[in-house]
Amino acid sequence: MSTGVVTAARVTHESGSVDQLAAASPESQQAAVTELLTVPGIEEAYVLSTCNRVEAYVVGPDHAIGRAALQEFFAGADDDAVVTTHHDESLRHLLRVAAGLESVILGEDQILGQVRTAYEDARDADGIGSMLEAAVTKAIHVGERARTETAINDGVVSLGSAATRRAGEELDLEGATALVVGAGEMGQLAARNLESAGVGELVVANRTVAHAEYIVDDVDDETDASVAPLENLDTVAARADIVVTATASEEPILEPRHLEEAEAGATDTEQVIVDLGQPRDVAPTTDALPAVRVFDLDDLESVTVETREQRADAAREVEAMIEREFTLLAEQYKRARADEAIAAMYESAERIKDREVETALSRLDGDGASEAQREVVEAMADSLVNKLLAPPTKSLREAAAEDDWSTIHTALQLFDPEFGANDGPIAPSSIATVTNGNPGISATDDD
User: Subunit structure, briefly (predicted)?
Assistant: First the structure.
């Protein structure tokens, strides 16, 4: 078990803009882990990069080294957009992410697969050691439990998912052509839900094309995805089966004239338009077109209320689950640290025992000890070691359970010749800075 502590930093949809997320995004997760491992003192690293978050976790001898490494890693983002956490809070956050509590859509499933992929990428870059192995696999376990044992991912709670559901009640989305107008958070959610619903083609139109490209880059390869500038709205809107608008415009951006081409060749097939804008993105007269059905926020609210409340109840269950699993993770770290001290103690005792047994056998009369004599002496020595070390073994395990890291630190100094007084903290959770022999409180985010 590593003797370091976990430090993490992140830029997410809550802390930064789309531009800040783009600035923080690495070339790849694996390359990012490799980069972090080049920093002196960083023993392990894990990076999770999605359209809504870039998070990096490192293990180092202390938080100062971890913070310095992460500050350099996120140098491209504004300081105000970067959230840095220390050991306990970092681990809790990772469990929350995998469980879907930190997602834009509460309880969404995609993030769990992304956590797994990031884990594989970090392993390929040799970034996963004993501490992050325990942490990330625990996060995946929590994410799986949350989705199988609670209703955290049932129903729809976002307007983006509600828009897709409403459109699906009007037409078959499988293989359909979808247009999302707007590349903000709501447009991003709508695009993701339409992709999941199986549309064959997805176009994202936005004034800033680069923002639209950021959404399209996250779309699965099986969906034909492209971007369009807003001035081409008449072309792309006319051929779309479903249009979802989600902009911050003060004036309607979609008018009947944008659909004239579709109306000219109108068939029995209807176009469905879902307006998520407030104020409205779609001119009211658009609904008068014979082959167009327009739905607004009032039409969608009833779809989300019940499932929003349902997931809120489930979220409270997941919160309690996370606290229990976090406690188990902390205990796992503690046992590992106690076992490290116990192993060092036994190894030291074995070295002394072997030396003294050979000395005793060489002093026996005659031509040396017989095989039977050797067996008796070795058995006696083994028995002495086991009996003498049984009480301190019990004490070390109790010390770890009680966060008495001073005792474990002393044991390592006594029995491990490679353990130095300046090796940094050895306790992983609530980790105790040892002051005058007493374990203290760990560093917090306010440090």
Answer: Homodimer.
- 114 is annotated as contributing to ligand binding: yes
According to CATH, where is 3.30.460.30 located in the chain?
A: 5-154+310-332
CB 6 within 8 A of CB 131: yes
Go through 161-186 and write b for each residue having 16 or more CB atoms within 10 A of its CB, e for each that does not. bbbbbbbbeeeebeebbbbbbbbbeb
> The whole model's pTM is what?
0.64
Tell me: is residue 436 an annotated ligand-binding position.
Answer: no
Q: Compute the distance between CA of residue 398 and CA of residue 31 in angstroms, rounded to an integer.
A: 41
Task: Tell me the CATH class for 5-154+310-332.
Answer: alpha beta
Give the position of tokens 């004993």: 130
Cβ(163)–Cβ(276) below 8 Å = yes
**Residues 334-344 pLDDT 10s:** 777 777 777 87
Rounded CA-CA distance 84/61 in Å is: 17
- Residues acting as catalytic residues: 51
63 - beta bridge partners?
none
Interatomic CA distance for residues 153 and 311, integer angstroms: 7
Q: What is the pLDDT of residues 40-85, one digit of tens each?
A: 999 999 999 987 799 999 999 899 999 999 999 999 999 999 999 9
**Is 109 assigned a ligand-binding role in the annotation?**
yes
Would you report the helix, strand and coil content of the chain in percent, each value rounded to 5? Answer: 55, 15, 35
159-295 to CATH, choices 3.40.50.2300, 3.40.50.720, 3.40.50.450, 3.90.1150.10: 3.40.50.720
68 touches 51 (CB < 8 A): no
Q: Report the 10 Å Cβ neighbour count for 313.
A: 11
Cα 315 from Cα 147, distance rounded (Å) = 11
